[in-house]
Amino acid sequence: MAIFRTTLLMLLILVCLTTYELHVHAAEGSEGAVKIDCGGRCKGRCSKSSRPNLCLRACNSCCSRCNCVPPGTHGNHHLCPCYASITTRGGRLKCP
Q1: Looking at residue 29, what DSSP letter applies?
Q2: Using an 8 Å Cβ cutoff, are 94 and 63 in contact?
Q3: What are the residue ranges of helices labelled H in the chain?
Q4: Do residues 58 and 95 make contact, with C-beta atoms less than 8 angstroms apart?
Q5: Tens digit of pLDDT for each residue in 27-36?
Q6: What are the pLDDT digits (tens) for 56-67?
Q7: What is the C-alpha to C-alpha distance for residues 95 and 72, in angstroms, rounded to an integer?
Q8: Helix (H/G/I), strand (E/B), else coil: 31
């Protein structure tokens, strides 16, 4: 009876770890994750920018790393934590 409980517990732990790994890899943008249309999302994000070419270049770079672009033309960085955490060498936020 003790062997059965131990085996069942080990199996449950294995299933939990496997599920966790699948979620972590999907969040990192592995091949199984659906890629968003960075060009379209960044075009909308940078539509009101005073420097649209610079905005698009930075936005596309951030989108390709994070597979996420916050909605709207400004702010909302809390909706894409990866996008909000990328900085330039000078320590300023890179993503518009």
Answers
A1: T
A2: no
A3: 2-27, 38-45, 52-66, 81-85
A4: yes
A5: 554 455 789 9
A6: 999 999 999 999
A7: 13
A8: coil
